[in-house]
Write a structure and sequence with these properties.
little secondary structure, 3 helices, 15% helix
Length: 206
Amino acid sequence: MGRKISIADLRKIHEDHKVWLKTVGAEGSCADLSEAKLSGVKLSKVNLSKADLSGSDFSSANLWGIILKSTNLKGANLRGTYLLHGANLTGADLSNADLTKANLSKAELGGVKLIKANLYKAKLSEANLSGADLSEADLSKTKLNKAKLSKVNLQNACLRGTDLKGAADLTIEQLSEVNTLYKSKIDAELVEQIKEKHPHLLEKPK
């Protein structure tokens, strides 16, 4: 069902977490917002790095510029969440998270785990996803145009109708591991390689 947390309690948890981060765990306490119901909350520019946000509900929240480095967001509900402009989720675990229509444009997502995450219609334009694990993720109609995709794991990911135009460091080897590229927008040079080596990926999935 989720835990209801008041704004006052949230402020106290954040203050304790700031001390915990500053003292490297010697004082304060690590924020535990697991299973918390925080739909629509505004948490602009706060630092919740290494916090436990697993199973939390941040749907439709405004997390502008939030710092979530190495944060546990497994199974979190981030549907429609606004994370634009400087949000840093480097090394965070978003496995099985729901990011449907979430806005992560220009976010730092290096090394994140998005295993089996739902990114349907999410916006990741110009985001840095270098070294991220997107295996088995749903990237249908996701905007990845101009995103940095160096060494991204796309094994068994669904890229149906995905916008990959201008994506940096994307290789045919990465694309060969996805389960479909049907109706995706891809740079011409890569399209030719796919047609030659893996034409089935461009066909309508059965």
